[in-house]
Amino acid sequence: MMKKIIFTYMLFVILLGTSSSCSDYLEVEPKNKVSANAVLSDPDGIRGYLANLYYQLPIEDFVYFPRAGYNARGNTGSLSLSQYSLEAIHSEWPNWNEFNNQWWDKGYKLNRNINLLEESILTVDFSEAERTQIEGEIAFLRAYTYYGLVKQYGGVSIITENQEYTTDWESLRVPRSTEKVTWDFVLSQLDIAIDKLPESRHNEDETKRRGTKWAAAGLKTRVALHAASIAKFWNQAPLSGEAVSKGLVGMKASEAEHYYKETIEAAEMILNSGSFNLYMPEPASPLEAAINYQNLFMNPNVASTEMLFMRGYGHAGGPLAHDYDGWNNPNQTGEGFPHVGRTNPVLGLIDLYENYNTPGESSPIITTTDGQLHDGEFNDAIPYKRFSSPEDIFEGKDARLFASIIFPGSIWKGTEIVIQGGIVKPDGSVIGSKDSYEHNGVTYYTYGAETPNRYSGFDGTPNMTRTGFLMKKFLDEGSRINTWLQSTTDFADIRYAEVLLNYAEAVAESGYGSILLATKALNDIRKRAGHTTIIPLTLENVLRERSVELAFENKDYWDLIRRRNYHTIFNNFIKTALVPMIDLRGPEPAFIFVRKNVPGAQPNTFSERDFYRSIPRINNNGLIQNPQH
Amino acid sequence: MKSIRTFSIALIGLLLLNSCELTELDNYNGPNATIHGGVYDQETGELVQQDIINGMAIEYIEHGYDNPHTQYIVVKNDGTFRNNIMFSGDYTIQPVRGNFVPIESVEIKVEGDKIQNFNVQPYIRIRNVVIQKQDNKVVATFNLAQTVTNNVNTIGLFAHAEMNVGEPLNLVAAKININAVSNDVFQYRLEINLEANSSTLKSGKEYYFRVGALIDAPEAKYNYAPALKIAI
Question: TM spans, by residue (chain B) (predicted)?
């Protein structure tokens, strides 16, 4: 009996083994999925498919974190790109210095999805106009994708046709193109997009959130300026090795001129179209300018004339919302979100903002009566300026400071934000750790209040700022955030102000284009911020304006990379903080400010190899690795 | 019935083992070799001082693989290097991105305890270095003898509590842009004001001071004199 069962069993195994491979008995269409062909043979299906491609685009917005990647939600730590630049530092990890973010696999997955779309639209019944539009959209998505690749890896494998799976690996390997060819490829795709895409779509929402002629032209100003900068500044941080000698990374200085011209041409197309303008270009006062500028980022939809391309968010509580408010609210208005106060703007950025009295130059925060800049720990001998109210030290600064940054004494959501880092006792000694001190019958606390829920800085815990500053730009002052995924603020990816600045930089760097128009571009942005004095077009003015106007929009990091000065700035470099203290030395208590290194921050040095990322799995894909990786 | 289950498990197990060749042992040797040596000035025979952070590197590629990864050894401040966990085998090895005129790669066989020195021509030799505390300053004087015709880009005096002090690791630096060809009789002078830096260089403590000079050449690193410990 037993033997017979075993025999039957064996027979069954053998039969199954021999028959399954040559029968299609098991190859059935799954009933719970829609097949690719069904989706991509129908215009509505294609729209759904496109939405997914836009979702995958390498847009550096509220859900982009260098470590966790694009579209990262949940507990990312909020290690954002602005903390890698000269804009901010992280409250919990001030010494984070990891340049390891990879987008290779996801980038090529997106590329494959775009190729699949292109392949299948050939078989779909479109009108001629519809077909042109979708071809333009494919070019736009492809350009955005390869821009994401080339700025991280240099020259990459350009794959524009869908590869069929085969075990003949060699036939699937596509060598890297040179960096120049890759940039040119991105620009040529944008030219196709500019040519074929419509200027607008059925409604405002769709116009601003899908590729249009103007989105493509705006992206082109960004891409061409990036390429021009790499060509021009490559020699400031030259690399060597096989990837360099084959041109896979790096470009010749003589190429710069051509790319600056491309930037100028694309920008002039937008400037001369008359379709765009800055939001609220002529405020009556700096106060009004500050309100306008804050609103522009709290809800970019109010500023449709300034938007070339946006990313939409919605459905609080769901996967299309984000946590920007949660991560960045001051501790006092944390409202129950578990991790707050993460992105801390640094003093170096605050110093850049102009004062209305001294137009055209940075106006560093002066903390002493001698008018000199004193950096370093509190020193009893230094004549500190004394303020009755901490916000007075920022008086006269550019409206955008007040709209972008919460500083000591700011009113936010109806609460005065208390940021204080110590007490100077009447004898000139300092209390810098959690303590209290009684003076003339009043009790003073190191951090400005007795309990942590009543202050927002300096006690060393991750929810407190360690620079004296907190984020305001992009935060929704009207919202209450007590759990995850409650923010639905949209992100302005390409806005008119950036196009103006790209234009001004290209003209200032190259001398091509119109100096008149570029000067106007620069000053229009300043006028919108409440400035009334015209300043000349100089590179220094343009770059300062860029840092201020585009602060926290994830541009500064790439500016340092493309202009090849990351390694000279981040060389044994420590970011700085502004620490307010209550000074009990005089007859009346007053606030003084100490400019010093961010507490807990160590010197940071950037390695030149990190101008490019390492290419993963070169043993498999046969590609030439980037220098020093 | 039970025997069927045993039988099936055995069958599956046998198949798995066969397909993955799990029965074979990895019989390659571990990294049982050592390599060490120094980067020497070909004229004076002295070690050429380096930086650890962002300093020169020694690149090596093991032979016998397709598209091999380049590996690196970091060189210590004093110009020596050591890797105690190296696989025995044939390598192409080359010191790169240093403070000396680039040299060709060499083919070597690494086995047991391998000593590999490199003789190089440093871009700049820093001579007659005197670093002294004078009143409220630390003053360094020195001569430069450059061995190539390029400009000297920058000279600097660097201070740090660690002996690995240098351009990428310092508490205080006094740097001057030269951007000119140096001559070997001119006495260069750099100073660090201790009073102005009293919050970083605390009086009564000892710090390392080191003089460096950078040639204007692609990927060049600073040339240094040895660090000196001074109590301030």
Answer: none
